[in-house]
Design brief:
The structure is a single chain. The chain has a single domain, classed as Beta Barrel (AOC barrel-like), CATH 2.40.480. The chain is built from one helix and eleven strands. Strands 3-5-6-7-8-9-10-11 form an eight-stranded antiparallel β-barrel. The protein has a two-stranded antiparallel sheet with strand order 1-2. Strand 8 and strand 9 form a beta hairpin. The protein starts with a helix and ends with a strand. The mean pLDDT is about 90. It is found in: Secreted, Extracellular space, Apoplast. InterPro entries: Allene_oxi_cyc_Dirigent (IPR044859), Dirigent (IPR004265). Keywords: Apoplast, Secreted, Signal. Its main location: secreted.
């Protein structure tokens, strides 16, 4: 009897673990969303203003790699790191709701196109500590640019969707910009 109990207990545990999976391929298992306590998916919309500040004594964007070719009008190869404020309104003095943290790189030789890699890290209300991750192409001089949401954390775990970016204000002398971001995200 003493030998039967540990064997029976281990079989029950193994059965319990695999009862949450639908299919197994050895290297991958399909899990039931209830295992992660995921609720019904919902669509949320956020409108935020992204302030990319190169000028002044406290910049939020810094060039970390200069363009290797000086004769490139697009600065192809240049990379900037960002820790940009996200605010409710277009003025930098409006309520701070988070930060856009990541980098962007000039990824097109013949046009002004950036590769954007950033997290919108929320610092307010129920979204505090949650992030939305964006990775995509940004044709900066187009009136509206669309980039994919590729995931997130916290309340945005398993998120997917897209963002629309519209330049609100751009200073060609300093490089400072304010961009309106409309974020459409499906999440649990």
């Amino acid at each position: 009897m003493a030998r039967v109990f540990p064997l029976l207990a281990s079989q029950i545990i193994i059965f319990f673990l695999f009862s949450f999976s639908n299919q197994s391929y050895g290297y991958a298992t399909t899990l039931d969303k209830n295992f992660f306590r995921l609720k019904e998916e919902k669509l949320s919309h956020f409108r935020l203003y992204w302030h990319d500040i190169y000028s002044g004594s406290n910049p939020t964007a810094v060039a970390v790699v200069a363009a290797p070719q000086k004769n490139s009008s697009t600065l192809f190869g240049a990379i900037s790191m960002i820790d940009d404020p996200l605010t409710e309104g277009p003025e930098l003095s409006s309520k701070l709701v988070g930060k856009a943290q990541g980098f962007y790189a000039s990824a097109a030789r013949d046009e002004n196109g950036l590769m954007m890699v950033m997290n919108f890290a929320f610092m307010e209300g129920k979204y505090n500590g949650s992030t939305i991750s964006v990775l995509g192409r940004n044709k900066v001089f187009s009136p509206m640019r669309e980039m994919p949401v590729i995931g997130g954390s916290g309340l945005f775990r398993f998120a997917r969707g897209y963002v629309e970016a519209r330049t609100h204000k751009f200073d060609a002398t300093t490089g400072d910009a304010t961009v309106e971001y409309n974020i459409y995200v499906l999440h649990y």
